[in-house]
Write a structure and sequence with these properties.
Elements (H helix, E strand, L loop, with lengths): L2 E5 L5 H13 L2 E4 L9 H14 L17 E7 L7 H9 L6 E8 L4 H11 L4 E2 L3 E4 L6 H7 L3
Parallel strand pairs: 1-2, 1-3, 3-4, 4-5, 4-6
Length: 152
């Protein structure tokens, strides 16, 4: 089964998980980079809030890839303002991956687990979203255990 990992990471936490998935499951790795990088933590939080509220997505440096040959798509993201970064949401919508098996993984400071999943379900209504992995500064989860239990 051919798998891909699509992810965005600001701090490096999501990137570490993405790399573990790619290595452990033999998946191809795709980093999605915003056109204008986010700055410090505080400036990123402020900017992300404005983007979400205005529904104005920044572009990406990353082109839209053809994911038609993949059966499983891992989607990794930090949770900002209770959801996926808005530019990342817009990128996912353009990827033509609706209808595929989606395995999301998210990192957060504190919360947003359910609302982020709901956003992803709304973006990809025809996909089978399974085995959601969530870890936060408050509730640490075991990524190695999750990976070992995944059936592809």
């Amino acid at each position: 089964m051919k798998a891909a990992v699509i992810y965005y990471s600001k701090s490096g936490k999501t990137k570490k998980i993405a790399e573990k998935i790619a290595q452990g499951k033999g998946a191809d790795l795709f980093f999605i980079e915003p056109e204008n990088p986010y700055g410090t933590y505080i400036s990123s939080v402020i900017r992300a809030g404005k983007e979400l509220k205005s529904k104005k997505a920044v572009g990406t440096k990353t082109k839209i890839f053809d994911f038609s040959k993949y059966e499983v798509i891992f989607i990794g993201f930090p949770i900002w303002h209770g959801t996926l970064p808005f530019f990342f949401q817009e990128y996912i919508k353009k990827c033509a991956i609706d209808g595929k098996r989606i395995i999301p993984f998210a990192t957060a400071t504190a919360s947003g687990k359910e609302s982020a999943l709901l956003t992803l379900q709304n973006i990809l209504p025809n996909s089978k979203i399974t085995e959601y992995f969530y870890t936060s500064a408050i509730k640490k989860a075991d990524v190695d255990k999750w990976l070992s239990e995944l059936k592809l």
